[in-house]
Amino acid sequence: MKSLLRKILAFFCREIGKKGVILLFDRNKSVMLGNKSHEVLVSRDTPSALSGVLSKLSADKLFLLADEHTMPLAHTLLRDVRFDGEHCVPAGESCKSVESLLGCLSSMESGGLTRSSVLLNFGGGSMSDLGGFAGAVFKRGLRVVNVATTLLAAVDASIGGKTGVNYMGLKNELGVVRMPASVIVSVEALSELPNEQWLSGYGEVVKYSLMMSGAVPQFVRSNDVLSIDSAELETIITECANFKLRVVARDPHDTGYRHILNLGHTVAHGIEAYEHERGNDIPHGIAVGRSLPVVAYISYVMKGYSRKKVARLRHICCEAFGLLDYSCKDVDKIIEYMYRDKKNIGDGHIRMVLLDGSANVPDVNCEVPESLIREAIDFYC
Ligand SMILES: NC(=O)c1ccc[n+]([C@@H]2O[C@H](COP(=O)([O-])OP(=O)(O)OC[C@H]3O[C@@H](n4cnc5c(N)ncnc54)[C@H](O)[C@@H]3O)[C@@H](O)[C@H]2O)c1
Predict the structure, then answer these.
(1) Is the pLDDT of residue 246 over 70?
(2) Could you tell me if the CB of 126 is within 6 A of ligand 1?
(3) Domain assignments of the chain as residue spans, ordered by start
(4) Which CATH class is domain 257-379?
(5) What is the 3-state secondary structure (H, E, C) of the chain?
(6) pTM of the entire structure?
C-alpha cells in the first residue's frame, strides 16, 4: 500500500516538476527540490545524501574543495567518503581571488582530475562561487556538487550556477553561469555556524520574504533567526530554495527575470566594496540586510511601494542588522562603487531592482537618481 502511495506521489511530483518544482520526501529525512536546472537536497544525513548523489554521477575521481573552517568539518562529517584529493583555501571572501582560483586549478591538475571527475565544494557561498568557477573552466568543465554549510549558501548562493571571483576590487567581476550537478544543504553542518553567519544568511531570507507569500514572510515578521528551531529552519530553507529554483528555471542564464534576485544587491555591493576598502569586511548577507530598507524607501518614492511596509522592513532590518552609520563622505564613496556595479549598462546611471507597489514581482533595471539614493541612505542612518 505504502509503495502504491509513493508511486502515485512520484507521478504527481513528476507532473508538477514539468511546470516548475518537484517536492519529494525521502526516507533519510531529506527534502528534495528539483527543476530543469538541478536538484537541491535538504538533508539531515549529509553522508547518505552525498552517497545517493555520487552513485548517480559515477565519477572517476572525487576531489574536495573546502576552506580552513569547513575542511575539518568535512573531514568529520564525511569521514567515510573516499576523496582522491583535496584543496584548502583561506576562509571567507578573500578566497574569491584569481590567485586562489589558480591554486585550486593547480591542485586539480596535479590530482589528475579528468572531465569525468567530480569537484565537491564544501562550505558557504565563497566555496560554491570559487569552486563552481574552477569546475567550469577546468578542462572546459567538470561536474560540481555543492554541499552548502551556511544559511546563505543553503537558501541562495549554492543554487543556480552563478560562479565567480573578485577582481580589481570588484565583486564577482570574473565568472560564468554553470549549473552544479547537484546541491546538498547540510543541515548538520549548519549547527556549527557562528551567529554572524546566521544573520548573513538571514539577510537573503529577508530579501526573499519581500517577493514571496507564506511561511517565509510570516517568519520574518514574527521571529528571531537566532532562536529558530530545526523544523522551522528546514521549512524556511526549503521554501527559499524552492523559490530560487523556480526563478532560475525561468531564466537559467540570468538574462532578465532572474535579475529580481538582485534585490538590494546594488546598494549592498557598494557598501561591501567600501567597507572592504577601509579594512572592515562585512558578510554579504548583512550588507544585503542593511540595503533592503534603502531600496524599499526608493521603491516607495519611485514605485508606490507601501509606506507601511517600508516602515515595518526598517524596523525588522534595524533589529537584525543595525542601522547604517555613514557620513556624507562615506556615502560619496559607496555611490562611486555603485556606479561601477556590473548591473549598470554603461550609460552613466545607477540601475537597481525595485519593489513595485502594484505588482508582486520586483521591477528590474530601474534608473535611480543619485540624489534619491542619498536621501534613502539618510532614511536608514
Ligand atoms: N553565486 C550566487 O548566486 C551567490 C548568491 C549570494 C551570495 N554569493 C556569494 O556568497 C559569498 C558569501 O557566502 P557565505 O555567506 O556562505 O560565506 P562564506 O562561504 O564566505 O563563509 C563564511 C564563513 O563561515 C565559515 N563557515 C562556513 N560554513 C560553516 C559552518 N557550517 N560552521 C562554521 N563556520 C562555517 C566559513 O569558513 C567562513 O569563515 C559571497 O562571496 C557572495 O558574493 C553568491
Answers:
(1) yes
(2) yes
(3) 2-193, 257-379
(4) mainly alpha
(5) CHHHHHHHHHHHHHHHHHHCCEEEECCCCEEEEECCCCEEEEECCHHHHHHHHHHHHCCCCEEEEEECCHHHHHHHHCCCCCCCEEEEECCCHHHCCHHHHHHHHHHHHHCCCCCCCEEEEEECHHHHHHHHHHHHHHHHCCEEEEEECCHHHHHHHCCCCECCEEECCEEEEECCECCCCEEEEEHHHHCCCCHHHHHHHHHHHHHHHCCCCCHHHHHHHHCCHHHCCHHHHHHHHHHHHHHHHHHHHHCCCCCCHHHHHHCCHHHHHHHHHHHHHCCCCCCHHHHHHHHHHHHHHHHHHHHCCCHHHHHHHHHHHHHHHCCCCCCHHHHHHHHHHHHCCCCCCCCCCEEEEECCCCCCCCEEEEEECHHHHHHHHHHCC
(6) 0.90
